[in-house]
UniProtKB/TrEMBL annotation:
<dbReference type="Pfam" id="PF00872">
    <property type="entry name" value="Transposase_mut"/>
</dbReference>
<protein>
    <recommendedName>
        <fullName>Mutator family transposase</fullName>
    </recommendedName>
</protein>
<dbReference type="GO" id="GO:0004803">
    <property type="term" value="F:transposase activity"/>
</dbReference>
<dbReference type="GO" id="GO:0003677">
    <property type="term" value="F:DNA binding"/>
</dbReference>
<dbReference type="InterPro" id="IPR001207">
    <property type="entry name" value="Transposase_mutator"/>
</dbReference>
<keyword id="KW-0815">Transposition</keyword>
<comment type="similarity">
    <text>Belongs to the transposase mutator family.</text>
</comment>
<comment type="function">
    <text>Required for the transposition of the insertion element.</text>
</comment>
<keyword id="KW-0814">Transposable element</keyword>
<dbReference type="GO" id="GO:0006313">
    <property type="term" value="P:DNA transposition"/>
</dbReference>
<keyword id="KW-0233">DNA recombination</keyword>
<keyword id="KW-0238">DNA-binding</keyword>
Length: 405
């Protein structure tokens, strides 16, 4: 800051005798009002082509026609301004457009606070405390509703023709439906591009999780341009493998190993859990499928009579567990678990924890979308060692990646 600027500030302080931050804010409010007023006058002057006191140089059949009072909301609170008019009604101010009454960026602030999980009532109170004017909870809700077209556009946007991995999982919420409280599932799809970057491909609100609804989601992906997926990483929902095969018959389905382990461990009492889980490491740490099967049969010999259901789920689902074993460590780390999407769900829970029940599906979709946008902004790094991952995928899936690389 220059010396002149400092001296000017000192002079302002001396002349105005500021005693508090409120005094400074009131002064700035007046200055802001004066600047806006001058800008409006300047806009009309440019439109008409002559200054207010220079009628001699007037070269138009239009002219000034008084003022219209207008109350605007700013970061300094509510301000009364006088918008100049022209006789023909052609003047359209740009600094404050005709129907705009908010020049503070309040809408963006409201949406940002809503995205962080604040209730409409809390946002209303905070805006009043910060800016000195009231914004009802209903108005806050209307402001956030304005992103509906943006959500629709996001849900319909074209996608990549091929994804290396797609993770699918659902998170559950309670929503009002015609006065009743119903359980709803938010179906979430997360994709990894062939360049190794993560993206949320969509969020769909529907009934409790079902393979039929997932098939609709998969068809939506196809309609938006997804022609091929190398590997789907999913949990153990009944019928999900068949739904994937119906939409993407060439894709491989990988059951989340962590989900599979949890499913087995629920049959084992605490006294044997540590020993049982240590023995199971021999299965999912095996260097290939053949050795993994050997270790599974050894496990069955040791524990099968006592805990048959814990072993049986691995045998029954081996076709969606076994793809894991043909890959090196870099790919195993990616498909070993659906933690990537569970991590996203944790972010969702953080912003929805204060809302036990949502009034509508669209209100739930709205906050999950805003939370997703905040998460995606942070996904700037691609997967570690992606070059090696891609080289493996090219070899494992010949003819499917080459045209996209």
């Amino acid at each position: 800051m220059s010396t002149l600027s400092k001296e000017h500030i000192k002079q302002l302080v001396r002349e105005n005798n500021f005693q508090s931050v409120s005094d400074v804010n009131a002064y700035l409010k007046d200055i802001f009002k004066d600047i806006i007023q001058e800008l409006l006058e300047a806009e009309l002057e440019a439109e008409l082509g002559y200054a207010k006191d220079d009628v001699a140089n007037k070269n138009t059949d239009n002219s000034r026609n008084g003022y219209t009072p207008k109350k605007i909301k700013s970061e300094f609170g509510e301000i009364d301004i006088q918008v100049p008019r022209d006789r023909k009604g052609e003047f359209q101010p740009k600094i404050i457009p005709k129907y705009q009454r908010n020049v503070s960026g309040i809408e963006e602030k409201v949406i940002a606070l809503y995205a962080r999980g604040m209730s409409t009532r809390d946002i209303s109170q905070q805006i009043e405390e910060l800016y000195g004017f009231s914004l009802s909870p209903e108005m806050v809700s209307k402001i956030t509703d304005r992103i509906a077209p943006e959500i629709k556009e996001w849900q319909q946007r074209p996608l990549e023709p091929i994804y290396s991995f797609i993770f699918m999982d659902a998170i559950h919420y309670k929503v009002k439906d015609e006065g009743r409280i119903t359980n709803r599932a938010a179906y979430v799809v997360l994709g990894v591009t062939i360049d190794g970057y993560k993206d949320i491909l969509g969020i769909w609100i529907g009934d409790n999780e079902s393979s039929k609804f997932w098939l609709g989601v998969l068809n939506n992906l196809k309609n938006r341009g997804v022609q091929d997926v190398l590997i789907f990483c999913v949990d153990g929902l009944t019928g999900l493998k068949e739904a994937i095969n119906a939409a993407y018959p060439k894709s491989e389905v990988q059951r989340c190993i962590i989900h599979q382990l949890r499913n087995s461990f629920k049959y084992v009492p605490y006294k044997d859990l540590k020993a049982f889980s240590n023995d199971f490491k021999e299965v999912y740490h095996a260097i290939n499928e053949e050795i993994a099967l050997e270790k599974l049969y050894e496990l069955k010999e040791k524990w099968g009579k006592e805990y048959p259901f814990a072993i049986r789920s691995w045998e029954n689902n081996w076709d969606v567990i076994s793809p894991f074993f043909k890959f090196p460590e870099e790919i195993r780390k990616i498909i070993y678990t659906t933690n990537i999407i569970e991590g996203l769900h944790r972010q969702f829970r953080k912003v929805t924890k204060t809302k036990t029940i949502f009034p509508t599906d669209s209100s739930l979709e709205k906050i999950l979308y805003l939370a997703s946008m905040n998460v995606v902004k942070k996904w700037t790094q691609r997967y570690k060692n992606w070059d090696r991952v891609l080289s493996q995928l090219v070899i494992q899936y010949p003819g499917r990646l080459e045209e996209y690389i």
